[in-house]
């Protein structure tokens, strides 16, 4: 068990979370409307896209508390929004999308707590895409969301 704790979070008026690390790097964790991914689903208004990024100049140093803080923010979000569904796509702009997926799997892929984490990997001629979904197990849409996620992957990628 880690003795480290998350950095203090500041909830912004737009619903994003901001935090500052010990080396003064600033980070933003944001959640935006993701309803377009499943526009005809009865739960579409509960789908949000998750993203985060360093919002400062320079290269942030490795810091385990950054991960702890992002996970903490996601838990806080689910506490306040228990019927929401989080979807994420791993950024591929620098070729590190697979590492990002491993990070999410380390954070949420162990079946702990009240959370289901599903992932998808799709390769095309250019590169591999990685995406995932987080939903609380007691979400009333849980079964339908997982069924729709599988259907979406089949329709989008023919799998």
Keywords:
alpha+beta; 28% helix; 159 residues; Aminopeptidase
Structure description:
The chain is of the alpha+beta class and 159 residues long. The chain has helices spanning 64-80, 97-108, 142-157, and strands spanning 10-11, 17-20, 26-33, 47-54, 85-89, 115-123, 128-136. It has three helices and seven strands. A seven-stranded mixed sheet has the order 1-2-3-4-5-7-6, sandwiched between helices. A hairpin with a 5-residue loop joins β2 and β3. The longest helix has 17 residues, at 64-80. The N and C termini lie far apart (39 Å).
Quick gist of this model?
The protein has helices at about 65-80, 95-110, 140-155, and strands at about 10, 15-20, 25-35, 45-55, 85-90, 115-125, 130-135. With about 160 residues, it is of the alpha+beta class.
Give the count of helical stretches. 3
Largest sheet: 7 strands, mixed
Structural class of the secondary structure composition?
alpha+beta
How much of the sequence lies in strands comes to 25-35%
Radius of gyration from the alpha-carbon trace, in angstroms: 16 Å
Proper CATH architecture: 3-Layer(aba) Sandwich
C-alpha termini separation: 39 Å
CATH topology: Aminopeptidase
Shape: globular
Poorly predicted regions are: none
Quaternary organisation? single chain
Number of domains: 1
CATH class descriptor name: Alpha Beta
Strand order of the largest sheet: 1-2-3-4-5-7-6
Share of residues in helices: 25-40%
Instruction: Please provide the count of β strands.
Output: 7
Give the SSE order as H and E letters: EEEEHEHEEH
Give average pLDDT, whole number. 86
């Amino acid at each position: 068990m880690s003795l480290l704790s998350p950095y203090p979070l500041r909830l912004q008026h737009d619903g994003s979370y901001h935090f500052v690390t010990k080396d003064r790097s600033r980070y933003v964790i944001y959640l935006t409307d993701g309803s377009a991914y499943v526009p005809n689903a009865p739960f579409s208004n509960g789908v949000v896209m998750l993203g985060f990024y360093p919002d400062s100049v320079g290269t942030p140093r490795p810091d385990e508390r950054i991960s702890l803080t992002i996970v903490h923010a996601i838990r806080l979000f689910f506490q306040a929004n228990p019927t929401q569904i989080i979807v994420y796509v791993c950024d591929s702009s620098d070729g590190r999308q697979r590492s990002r997926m491993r990070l999410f799997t380390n954070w949420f892929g162990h079946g702990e707590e009240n959370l289901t984490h599903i992932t998808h990997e799709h390769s095309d001629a250019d590169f591999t895409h990685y995406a995932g979904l987080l939903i609380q197990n007691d979400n009333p849409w849980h079964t339908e969301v997982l069924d729709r996620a599988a259907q979406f992957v089949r329709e989008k990628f023919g799998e």
